[in-house]
Amino acid sequence: MKNKSFGSRLIAAPYIVWSVIFIVVPLIIMFYFALTNESGVFTLANLASIGKYKKAFGISVLYAAISTLITLLLAYPMAYFMTKLKVSSQRMLMMIVMIPMWMNFLIRTYSWITLLANTGIINTFLGKLGLGPYKLMYTPGAVILGMVYDFIPYMILPIYSVLSKLDKSLLEAAEDLGSNGFTKFKRVILPLSKPGIISGVTMVFVPSVSTFYISQKLGGNKTMLIGDVIEYFFNLGPTYYNVASAISLVLMVMILICLFVMNRFSDDDDGGVII
Amino acid sequence: MKKLSAFAVIFVILLSLVFSGCGYEYAELNLRAEYARDLEGTTLTVYNWGEYISDGSDGMLDVNREFEKLTGIKVNYLTFESNETMYSQVKNGGVNYDIIIPSDYMIQRLLNEEMLAKIDTSKLSNYDLIDEQYKNVYFDPNNEYTVPYNVGMVGIIYNSSVIKDIEHSWKVLWDKKYKDMALNFNNPRDAFMTAQMILGFDLNSANKSDWDKAAELLKEGKPNLQAYVMDEVYGKMETGEAAIAPYYAGDYLTMAETNPDLKFFYPQEGTNIFIDSVCILKNAQNYDAALMYINFLLEPDIATANAEYIGYASPNTAVIDNENYYYYGNEILYPKKENMPKVQYYHDIDDEIRSYYETLWIDVKLD
Predict the structure, then answer these.
(1) Could you tell me if B182 and B329 lie in one domain?
(2) The domain containing residue B291 runs over which residues?
(3) Contact call for B365 and A222, based on CB within 8 A
(4) How close is the nearest chain B Cα to the Cα of A35, in Å?
């Protein structure tokens, strides 16, 4: 829309109003709280105190990185496999990927408890075979599993959309030039699907690193991710709004830096990260 | 568009099917006091804990509806999840609340900040029903500001089908025998309490090193625990997922209804007792209606319905001595004098110590 007519502006107005109220204003409030003390005087003390929570930052980044990697390793073959199928089967599989997303994410996470618990479905089944019970729940593995499960559609979708639009003639050309299957994948398909991978990694890593609910329900509250620390402070009431905002601010800046670096990488190709 | 409206219509029909048949039938109440209708048409705003009043579910009394019918006063009933949320709402929220029902330490804070109005108990004809042992408590030594509503103590629940003999001590949460079987509170004050009791500390210690020692003990016990939980304790204990958990006596009774294997004891080191009391705020808009409401809550029929619905101990002698009361003579809710555990109340802790232990809790979690 090059010529912004009055009409087109009018159409955009509700969204602009919406984003100002619910994105810009909250951000300003967050900045304000992060940079002031309880009585509203400017201070950097909140930001300086963040060192205390470096372990929570560390665990969050580690968990998020592991779950992003697992998600990628699972999602890429899945997306690739889907593109090889008949269109009707592709639609069918797409539905299967999407259906869990129709359900509330809290419920999906909660349902893992019924699966993983000592008295849960998996252990009951193993018990019938004379195995276990194994401690599946309240482990770091359970938290990572929860993240992988909750966020995997965000990895499959962008990779699938890139792969399905791949120009078939490029693959034929590669074959004509004598590439075997592996070389074709390594030198043609993989580089061309990079925008999808980058977009998928972003969409999985960012929510994973800031998540709080999954770690509480599947980790048994025995550790705290940085999202848990923020939530804990907010629940304790207004005295902690400043430090909680400071942590949020730092987390946000970290994420923005990561995104910036990643975007630079994708710019080398034809860019265009779909977020 | 047709599809959309069809969807909406069917959704509404299904909803109305689900919620039909919810008509409430008023009960025949035997009332001790007289209730004038001179405040008819006014509104009373009550701010209470969630699920903390008999609300007409399962064929029980709907206390607020009965009060409205009796007096013509409209009850605007709102609920909170924690003393702290209640506090910040009352302090900064836009609503003018008349009645609030906080716990002991929060009442102490509200009184320090002069936010509560005096309650002239001589105007409450049912006040004589309050048991003497719940009068003159530390936060209101002369009974000028509060009327007790509910009382409770923390104890330990265990599953007797898994554990036969258990030491009656907080130490069971640290016992290697019960690795991965025990739960603890997922809030700092109560979790610290379990450690403070073992160490023999004052729960309201102003000494940071006491809190440090308690935190060390909690860190030591963390690998032994299955999880830190709050409300999830119900499901975990009822299904046998966990075998030991500290929680409130009244909630234990609810769990034992589902799983009769669950047993309960008060640890020998002592425990925490709480009282939730009815207060009127200084800026109440409808003070006289508030008095009337408090007197109504003290009515034997109403107090019994509430005590049965909530399941905590009632400070109302008309409930305790009522042979038809569901928990009549229950020794967990109302232990005999000789079985009464050593108890400590929570007091309002000064801001510095409070933020100290609230931050220590993160250290415990991140250890």
Answers:
(1) no
(2) 33-150+276-334
(3) yes
(4) 19
